Amino acid sequence: MKTIKYIIYSILFFGSLPGIAQTIEEIIAQAEEKSVFEKKVRVGLSWNQYWGTIKGTNLPKEYFAKPCVGASLRAEYYPLSFIGVGVGLGVQQRGAGIINEDKTGGTFTHPWFGTQDNTEDSTYRERLRMNTIEVPVTLLLRTPKDVVKGMRLTAAAGIVWIKNDYVKDFWHKPEDGFHSIVNVDNDYIKQDLGYQASLGADIDAGQSVFQVHFVYTKGTKKIYKTGSGDGRVETYGFRVAWLY
């Protein structure tokens, strides 16, 4: 009887080995987490904090860079681990601050004397605000391996289609709480094609990627409809995005 029991136990033991091995393999496979960067397609939202100005020759005004906020939908496709294509659709402020000649005796003497269209104030109150719709299409490059655990360096370069939804001249008047706003759409072009370049990092955030990029964009068309000035809109700043 003992011999028969040993034979039965041996058959059961060796018969269960494949199942045990398969279970061990499944446990090991589950324990090995896949890198978040292996996913080929990601979609998400970005927040853009740029500064905008106009640069060129024979400009009708003297400009300085002003803050320009924006947000967009983003999608990225990586057919290979190190190269991909990105596309976006967003709303972005552009434009510039305007410096006017001071003829009133100094910034702190009578800064409220400046008036729009006949300004004599140099206190950096006037803003040219362009509200634009943008569609960037870029080639993406990414390090195939983490530079540090959970982070890869990324870069992008391409073109961006820009549509000026509206262009307004703002004159800020904090002393009385009111601002003068003039629509100047007719003085500026409606569409522009710019080039864009960015550099930053993609960070593993679990099931998503947190992206931080420094972004530079410059238009290729003369922004003015009239006059001899040859100015191009320029923005630079940071973009943060969550991609799922």
What features would you describe in this structure?
The protein has 244 residues and is mainly β. Helix content is 12%, strand content 53%. It has an eight-stranded antiparallel barrel with strand order 1-3-4-5-6-8-9-10. The longest helix is centred in the N-terminal third of the chain and has 30 residues. About 2% of the residues have low confidence.
Short description:
The protein is mostly beta strands and 244 residues long. 12% of the residues lie in helices and 53% in strands.
Encode the helix/strand succession as letters.
HEEEEEEEEEE
Beta content:
over 45%
At CATH level 2, the architecture of the largest domain is Beta Barrel
List the domain count as a whole number: 2
SSE-based structural type: mainly beta
Query: Percentage of helical residues?
Result: 10-25%
Mean pLDDT: 85
What is the CATH level 1 assignment of the largest domain?
Mainly Beta
Distance between the termini: 63 Å
CATH topology of the largest domain: Porin
| Total DSSP helices | 1
Radius of gyration: 29 Å
User: How many individual β-strands?
Assistant: 10
Please give the order of strands in the largest beta sheet: 1-3-4-5-6-8-9-10
Low-confidence stretches: 27-32
Q: Which helices and strands appear, and what pairs or packs with what?
A:
Layout: H1 2-31, E1 41-57, E2 62-64, E3 66-77, E4 83-99, E5 126-142, E6 151-171, E7 180-183, E8 191-204, E9 209-219, E10 230-243
Antiparallel strand pairs: 1-3, 1-10, 2-4, 3-4, 4-5, 5-6, 6-7, 6-8, 8-9, 9-10
